[in-house]
Amino acid sequence: MTARRLPRLESAGLDGWLVRLFAEIDEANMPWLTALVRDCEAAFGEALVDLVPSYTTLLVVFDPLSLSPGEARRRLADVVASLRPDEAAEGAPLRELPTWYDPSVGPELARLAERSGLSVEQVVECHSAVTYRVFALGFAPGFAFMGRVEERLACPRLETPRKRVPAGSVGIAGRQTAAYPLVSPGGWNLIGRTAAVLFDRDREGFSLLQVGDRVRFVPVTREAFTRLGGDDTAMEDRR
Predict the structure, then answer these.
(1) CATH homologous superfamily of domain 94-228?
(2) Distance between CA 117 and CA 108 in Å, rounded?
(3) N or C: which end of the chain has fewer CB within 10 A?
(4) What's the rounded Cα separation, in Å, for the pair 32 and 225?
C-alpha cells in the first residue's frame, strides 16, 4: 500500500478540516505554515472559528451554520493549491527569555550533563546558543513547543511526571524545549527557570510566545533573575 501524498486534507468532524502539509518536524516548515494560517484567515473570513497550527499540520475550525463541510474543503483545497511560503517568516519576532540555569530550579541539569558527556556549563551554553522556533502552542495556555534542541541534549521525558512544576521552569523533552507558563504537572527534564511572564490574562493574545516566533534563552545570574521578578525558590523534587 503506498503512502498518501502530501499535502492532504483530513476530516476533523462536522466543523473542522486538518491540513497535513509535512511528514516530519523541520524549521523549514514554518514559512509554509504561517502562510497557510494567513491564507485561511482570508479565505474563511467570518466563518472561521479557530486555527490550530502544529509542527506539520493546521487544524481549521469553521462555523457549520455559515459553511458546509464540502464548501470548507473546497476553500481549503484552493488555498493549498496556490500556497506559497511566507517570506516574512524569517523576520518573525525574536523573544529573549532571561533564564537562570541552576540545579536548585533545574533538577535535571546535572543529569543531562552526565548523560551528554558535557559539563553543566557546556549544557547551558549549548541550550542558550540556539535560536529556537515556536512550532505549536498547547498542553497549557501559553505553553510553546520549541525546537530543535541540539541532538546531544535530547532526552526523553521523565518516566514519572511531576505533580507540580513551577511557572517559568525551562525543560527539554526529546529535541524540544519549552518553558512552563503556569504551575502545572509535567514530565519534561528541567534545567532552569525564566523570569519572563509567559501567560498574562491582561496581555493582548494572553501568550508572550506565538507560533512562528524566534526564541533565545539568555543566561542570567541569580541576582539578575530575581531583580527581573523571577522566583528563585528551590524545587522540592516530589513526583
Answers:
(1) Cyclophilin-like (2.40.100.10)
(2) 14
(3) N
(4) 36
